[in-house]
Amino acid sequence: MKSRWGRLSLRSRTIAGLGTTLGLAGLMAAWLLAVAQPAAGQGSSVYFGFSQAADYGGWPSSLNVAQQESSIDPGAVERFDLNWAALQPTCKIAALTAVGVCPEGPGAFDWSLLDTVVSHMKADGVKLLLNIISSPVWAWNPLTCGAYCADTPTGTGDSSPAGIAMPPADDSTGNGYLQSMVESVLERYDSLDPGEIVGIEAWNEENVRPFWPTTMGPNATDYTNLLCSIYSAAKSVNPSIPVILGGLANTSAVALNDIDIPTFLSDAYAAGAGSCMNAVAVHAYPAGDPSAANSDLPTVVQDANTADANGGHPSLPVWITEFGYCTADTSDKCPNPMTPDQQAAYIDCGYQLALGMPNVAAVIVDNLDDGPGPSTSPSTLQGPPYYGVYTIPGDPKADGSGYGAVGMLTDMFHGGGSVGPIYSSCQADYWNQVYHANPGDPPPAPN
Fold it and tell me: What's the whole-model pTM score?
């Protein structure tokens, strides 16, 4: 699974400006005047779902994840971390597996976990967005993995948060191994179950150092080589499967050699990414009301649309593959903590707002269940707790209303809730119209 420590630290960073030439307030006004499409569960072309690790150590079972997601939205999409480092951990000569060394080529695949996940998702009607988020140590470049080379000399490379996100060597060997893995995955699952996989997302937050931890840090040209390798492999098996540029973090370019979304996309287009993708993914973690003009949600979508237009692809779909709110009682546990009722209103409202934004093709909430960590097990830190709509499987979050995000989303996707028109605010107007379970409740307090 992806390194959740790194993503948690990103949420605490200050967002620097809008970085665009178009007026965001004007675009927001246009978006907010639009009428929303029907919910995805009711025939919309916009996917809805959750980003949720499953079956990896300490995380919920894929059986529970599939049942919960399908109960909320019968057409849900599960964004699943395809951990290459766990799928193909060693070389053929396992004892000689080392950083950048693979005698006689890669070893056999361990399909057990992925077989279980695919089986459970298919049984409950949940589609899969496979997010490739790691490479095994034997595929790394020993000259660019820095301290992580010594951190995990053998095995899966998952003993450090950044080590698991190390890309393969940026050469024909490393990217060749990557292509072979992608082809094998799609030949096994997409060929047998056409339509079960709705897309391949190529990496995660590759514009920030925790998820591109080479000695030089994020590099759009190197990333484009990886993206094109995944694209070539996927299209060789299924020409119609979408390949999505990995979800970009909304960050400034100040610390750790991180690269902001407009700059990274501009550089990627210059390196040829436009011919190696069918969509761009972005991540949004708003500090409060997602309809606010300076909110992460409209900002990242506008950044993507502007860069795509400048790159010659003005109609390229935009997938929001992480969108969420933290619920905690104090701000030291996560930035901008919400009550469960605020989380519910903002996730529901944010989804409906996104339906009216140009080119948006998917909204994936991060995440379904709180990860194993301080909220459920104070002695461990395996991921970012507090962001789930469930605390643990079967225990949906709720407070004063007794309703919460699970209840609101379930009603919406099963036809009982309102989907548009899109209101100008996620505060009183929206609350009174949409929060129909308890229409007399006051709106959530501004955060």
Answer: 0.84
**Which superfamily does CATH assign the domain made up of 4-434 to?**
Glycosidases (3.20.20.80)
Closest CA to 175 of 247, 259, 250, 233: 233
Give the C-alpha distances (Å, rounded to integers) separating 283 from 21, 106, 298, 350, 366: 21, 33, 11, 13, 9
CB atoms within 10 A of CB 200: 28
Q: Which two tokens stand for residue 255?
A: 């610390």
Q: What is the dihedral of CA 435, 439, 440, 444, to 10 degrees?
A: 10
- Tell how many helices (H) and how many strands (E) occur in the chain: 13, 10
Do 268 and 202 meet the contact criterion of CB atoms below 8 Å apart? no
Per-residue tokens: 278: 């069918």
Which tokens go with 244?
């999505």
Residue 148, both tokens: 């992580």
Q: CB neighbours of 26 closer than 8 A, spacing ≥ 6?
A: none
Task: Please give the residue that has the higher pLDDT: either 199 or 421.
Answer: 199
Residue at 434: amino acid letter: V
Residue 438: what pLDDT? 45
Q: Which helix (H) or strand (E) holds 362?
A: strand 360-366
For 75, the token pair is 């057409």
Task: Identify whether the C-beta of residue 383 lies closer than 8 Å to the C-beta of residue 372.
Answer: yes
